[in-house]
Amino acid sequence: MIAVLNAVDAIADEMIAFLQELTRIPTVNPPGDLYAPCAEFIGQQLKAFGYNVEHIVADDSPLHTPAYPRVNVMGRLPGATQQQPVLHFNGHFDVVPAGAGWTVDPFGGDIRDGKLYGRGTCDQKAGIAASIFAIEAIRRAGITLNGTIEQSATVDEESGGFAGVATLARRGYITQGHTTYVIITEPSNVDRICIGHRGVYWFKVTQHGRIGHGSMPQLGVSAIDHLGDVLHAFTHDLKPRLAERVTSMPVEPPGSRHASLNINSIFGGQPENAVQTPCVADRAGLIGDRRFLLEEEPFEAKVKPEIIDLLDEVNARIPNARYTLEDLMVVHPVQTDPNSPLVAAVRDSIQNVLGTTPPLMASPGTYDHKHVYRIGNVADCIAYGPGILDLAHQPDEYVELEHLIQSAKVMALSAIRLLGTKQ
Ligand SMILES: [Zn+2]
User: Fold this and answer.
1) Residue closest to 208 by CA, chosen among 326, 327, 307, 320
2) Rounded Cα gap, residues 327 and 38, in angstroms
3) What pLDDT score does 81 carry?
């Protein structure tokens, strides 16, 4: 064990230099800049470390265009004595736009006071660097793993992961029967293990009225007035009910252990910057973001009917009211069994490296775990990686170099525990 930890320390400078280079490729999503060169850069590193490398192009994605190709990369390092088990590390290399408020170059990869700055360092290029160099450190320590290591670096996580991990899962790269364990290297503050996330339902409600002259509104039907009633019911009836529901999942922050509803946007009537005419609005609506709990499944029997009931009730009270409801996205909650051997291996390795017992947590939002479980049917999946979760998507995002090194040590020890070594 000491040999591997020393090997990670010895490789740290190379790992940091790799992360700097990776940070300097501004893979901003949307729109999905520079995915191909970034996949190529990561693929070259994997090749240099002995992996069989494959580029997986999501050419069936509507977002895949000549200007913005959706290119993923995966490397496979076969085991010494057997193909199984397979430990798959996955990280996404797309980053959200830099935004305002930076005091350093967001794509400069500058290091100050032991921190590497840049958009995507914490979320989550540091995780990609950590897993690649963790496994290389094992090799340099003269240790051969029995099982197989796979490393994938994927696109579009920030916009749902459909051309990324979902594509890998659909095409059998991450799938039950082949893939034994998946570690998604998203930021988990280096000392926590994330075992899942809540569910999401995005929906659009449209109230339909009838146009009329604004000076004679009694001759029209105002969809905006009706939307007001819907909003009132959401705020004063549904939201308090949701706030009373608590999940047993260890969601962080604890305030997000409740079911919730946020209204993303409202629309209706005439555009605010258009020349105004006296018209009764015949159309108005909202887009809702309902976060639901494991305990609220099945979604089709509980979450959606509750919204339909409320809309029916409001519309029944108003003469001439009519609505339509559209599903925009449904993501079911997932949770890996806390007794999974994967959780145990990473927990024991965190104890070895940091001397602390990691809390198990669940994410308030979703990430690529959903595709691993729902499409790939792989039950043993966690998120673990360097980076302080709260810094994700913030200006002056950074990763502590110490956390980068510690997490690589945890990943190396976990790989040895899960795959075994050749005697
Ligand atoms: Zn992320």
Assistant:
1) 320
2) 34
3) 74
pLDDT < 70 positions in the chain: none
pTM: 0.91
303 Cα to the center of ligand 1, angstroms: 27
Amino acid residing at 94: D
Cα dihedral 47→52→58→60 (10° resolution): 150
Give the integer Cα–Cα distance in Å for 359 and 252: 11
Q: What is the 157 CA–ligand 1 centroid distance (Å)?
A: 7
> What single DSSP character describes residue 335?
E
Cα–Cα dist 79/400, whole Å: 32
Query: Distance from the CA of 35 to the center of ligand 1, in angstroms?
Result: 16
Distance 95 CA to ligand 1 centre (A): 8
What angle do helix axes 223-233 and 303-317 make, rounded to 10 degrees? 130
The per-residue pLDDT for 2 is: 93
The model's pLDDT over 222-279, given as tens digits with 9 standing for 90+, comes to 999 999 999 999 999 999 999 999 999 999 999 999 999 999 999 999 999 999 999 9
Question: Which domains, and CATH codes, for the chain?
Answer: 2-197+333-419 (3.40.630.10), 199-331 (3.30.70.360)
Nearest to 149 by CA among 76, 72, 47, 52: 76
How many angstroms does the Cα of residue 91 sit away from the middle of ligand 1? 8
Q: Rounded mean pLDDT of the chain?
A: 96
How far, in Å, from the CA of 13 to the mean position of ligand 1? 24
Give pLDDT, residue 89: 98
Task: Find the 18 Cα to ligand 1 centroid distance in Å.
Answer: 19
Cα(20) to centroid of ligand 1, in Å?
18
What is the reported pLDDT for 72? 98
Query: Which token pair is 259?
Result: 């079911």
DSSP percent split of the chain into helix, strand, coil, nearest 5: 35, 25, 40
DSSP symbols for 84-111: -SEEEEEEE--B----S--SS-TTS--E
Where do we find the tokens 């490296």? 353
* pLDDT at res. 80: 82
C-alpha 233 – ligand 1 centre gap (Å): 34
Are the C-beta atoms of 201 and 304 separated by less than 8 Å?
yes
Interval between CA 124 and ligand 1 midpoint (Å): 5
> Does residue 307 contact residue 263 with C-beta atoms inside 8 Å?
no
